[in-house]
Amino acid sequence: MRFFYTFFSGVNRLLNSFLMLFGFRWFQNRWGVVYDSVSKQPLDPVQIKLIDASSGKVAQSSVTDLSGRYGFLATPGKFKIFVSKTNYAFPSKSIRCDSDGIYKNLYGGQLFELLGESDVISFNIPMDPLRVDWNQQAKQSLIKTSAFSENLALKTTSILFWAVFIFALASLYFSPSNFVYGILVFYCLVLFLAMVLPKPRLWGRVMDGKTKQPLVGVIVELTHTKFPDVVVAKGITLDQGKFFLRAHRGEYLIKITSENEFGQKSLLKSKKIKIGGGGYYSRDIMI
Amino acid sequence: MLYMPKFNKKALIVEDDEQLRGVMVSKLGEVYEVLQAGDGEEAVERIIDKIPDVILLDLLLPKLDGFKVLDRLRSYPDKKIASIPVVVLSNLWSDKDILQAKSLKVEEYFVKAHTDLNDVVLRLKKILEAA
Question: Where in this protein does the record say 4-aspartylphosphate is found (chain B) (predicted)?
Fold first, then answer.
């Protein structure tokens, strides 16, 4: 059963990557990025707070990484997000639509509701620059970001995709051939996949290996393999044992730890894992 | 740049982002005297002038980066200054950066994006209590 799940989730990830080649699902459903509304560069460090709208309290808080990324795994409810960074203003007054080049699913300070079951909240959030920020200029030599070229690539692939489609339709009318039929079948397949393929899940789960029950409230940490005391990602399992860990591609040590009411921690499991280009770990871990 | 002292232990917060620095200052400032620096040169001046008991250091800093601050600190002739414990809070997290910081004897290395700031405060308080 576990083998089939791993196999199908792997195929799903692969097909989603395939769709991205044609301009579908570009950067969707991975993580949120807080970015400069003018330069389109990701911002860090940005303090980002998930506010529970019913109580007005901070449900979770985080700081964006060098690539401006963040993500909150939250249980269903009504929320608001508040972000703050020196020299930047939120909400953006210059970007008021739902899409901004490569950045889709934008957030501008509105109330939103997470329905169904717990999931990852990962809006892209524009902020308006107020003055020159030293940190943003300095890190340009460290982090290679290319929002404009990525946007150009996205538009180019989309235009090519639809141009070839229109050309194939015209060819079907003027000079039909098996090659043209083949191209149209390929297009039907891509469009069908874009409509029905589920988005890859971003969260993993911690389960009891014997009872198959989810383990809620355990700490999941990713640490450097060379420096095990340096935590590079951390989360706590919610309902259904779900956790959300994001990290750059690489090999890490994952540690599952439980904590009792007196604050004493005990290590439940530790193993080496690899994180791919997707930048998140979404496997099930059996204890 | 100086918070009202409440106890005789001093912490220096070195962070170029004013808002993040303000959060750390407010979390520590209730119990300890907190000094602030927004760039590397200012940090070195504060260290020599005030001799803090612990330093929270960002690595990406204007004028003088955190590695150079650490280097100057560890090679300072006065051993009291050279041995001040340092906790790093940075978004740099490559093997190279961590190795370089560890070679300059930092007490702890926290990655900003994956750290609960309260954990950082707890670590600083532990160091200050032991100082």
Answer: 58
Spell out which residues of chain B touch residue A233, defining contact as CB-CB under 8 Å.
114
Question: CB-based contacts of A56: which residues, under 8 Å, 6+ apart?
Answer: none
Helix (H, G, I), strand (E, B) or coil at A201: coil
Helices (H) and strands (E) in chain B, counts: 6, 5
Whole-model pTM: value is 0.79
Residue environment code for A238-252, b if the CB has 16+ CB neighbours within 10 A, otherwise e: beebbbbbbbbeeeb
Instruction: Choose the mutation target among A50, A61, A84, A135 for the interface with B, i.e. most B CBs under 10 Å.
Output: A135
Q: Classify domain B10-130 by CATH number.
A: 3.40.50.2300
- Contact (CB, 8 A) for A200 and A278: yes
Give the integer Cα–Cα distance in Å for A277 and A30.
11
Per the structure, the count of domains in chain A is 3
A267 forms bridges with which residues in the sheet?
A257
Residue A42 CB: number of other CB atoms within 10 A?
Answer: 23
B19/A85 CB distance under 8 A:
yes
Determine the 3-state secondary structure of A41 from DSSP. Answer: coil
| Beta carbons of A49 and A87 less than 8 angstroms apart | no
CA distances from A195 to A21, A103, A108, B94 (A): 15, 20, 27, 39
A218 & A244 share domain: yes
Run of H or E including A12: helix A2-21
Our CA-based measurement puts residue A86 at a distance from the nearest CA of chain B, in whole angstroms, of 6
What are the structure tokens assigned to A139, written together?
């890190």
Which residues lie across from A77 on neighbouring strands?
A: A114
Q: Domain segments of chain B: what residues?
A: 10-130
- Predicted ipTM of the assembly: 0.80
